[in-house]
Hints:
It is a single chain. The chain is mainly beta. It has helices at 3-19, 293-297, and strands spanning 51-59, 76-79, 85-87, 93-99, 102-110, 113-122, 127-135, 138-148, 151-162, 167-170, 173-176, 183-185, 188-190, 200-208, 211-221, 254-259, 262-267, 270-275, 278-281, 287-289, 302-309, 312-320. A hairpin with a 2-residue loop joins strand 7 (127-135) and strand 8 (138-148).
Amino acid sequence: MTRHAFLPSLVLTLVLAVACGGKSPTNPSPAQSPAETPAPSPASSVPAGSAIVAGQVVAGAASLGATMPLGLEGVTVSVAGSSISNVADANGRFSLSNVPGGDQRIEFHGNGTNASVTIGGIAEQEHIDVTVAVTGSTAEVVEQQRVTGAEAQLEGTITAKSEAARTLEIRGVTVKVPAGVPIRHGATSLTFANLHAGDRVHVKGAKDSAGVTASQIEVQHGEDTPGNGGNGNGGNGGDSGDDDGNGDDGNAGETSLDGTPSGMTGQCPALTFMLQGKTVKTSASTDFRKGTCDAFRSATNVEAEGVLTGNTLDAKKVSIEKD
Length: 323
C-alpha cells in the first residue's frame, strides 16, 4: 500500500473517534484518571476513632450482688451524633467499633427503651466492656472493664475472695492484690480484710494473661464502709447500720434531702444540682450508692446526705431511690 492510500483510513479513524465523544484512548480525561480519589461521603458530627465499646444491655435495674437480669434483644445501641450503631442479639450483647475518644453518650432505643448513658474519658484503642441496665428512659452502668494496652480498670461487684492468695473475682476476672496496694473508701483507708463478696469496687491495675494485678482499689459500697452496717472505719463513731444497708452515720448536724434533682452541672464526681430548694455538691469523697456517678446524673429520684451550710449541702453520700 502506498503512503497516499493510507491517509483515508487514518482520517476515517479520527472521525469515528470524534463521533464517539472526542476522547483520545491514550489521553484519559481527569474524571477517568486512576490516580484520583473519589469524593468522600459527608463526615459524621462525631469523628471516627479506634476504641471499642461492647457488652450487654439488660432489662431493669440490677441490684448490687444480685443475679444479673436477662439480656434485652433487639435494642439498637449507638454513639450519639454518629452513624456508629449495633443491634443487640438474643442475649443483649452488642459491639460498637471505631468509637471516638473523650466523653461519648451511648444511646439505647427500641424494645420499650429510650435511654442513654455517658462513658467518660475514652482513650484511643481502648477496649471497654460494659453491662448496662435499662428501664424505660433510665440507663445505668452496672459493671465495666476497660483495657488500654497493659492498663486495666474494673468496676463491679466482688463475687469471690481468697484470703490466702489475696485475690478477688470481679466480672469473671481474677484480680491479684499485692500487699501495700492502697484500698480506700473516699478518704478512709481500708485493708484487704475489709473487702467482702458483694462489695462494689473500682480497680485500677495492669492486665496480664492471668488477670489483673491491682495498683489501686476504691470501694464504692461495701460491708465495711461507713453507714453499711459493717465494722466501720476512720472514726465514724455512732455508725449503727439499718437492715436495708443504708445505715445512720450518727453524725450530728447532718441533713438528708430527697426528691428529683434539677439543674445538674459539672463532671463526675464533682456535680452540683438543686434538691428541695437547696444546692447539693458532690466530690471525689462522696459515696455514690445504688449506682455509678454517671447513672446518678440521669436518675429521677435521689437522696443526698451531708453537712448543710447555709443553703448548700456538701454530700457525703447520695443514692438512687426507686420512683
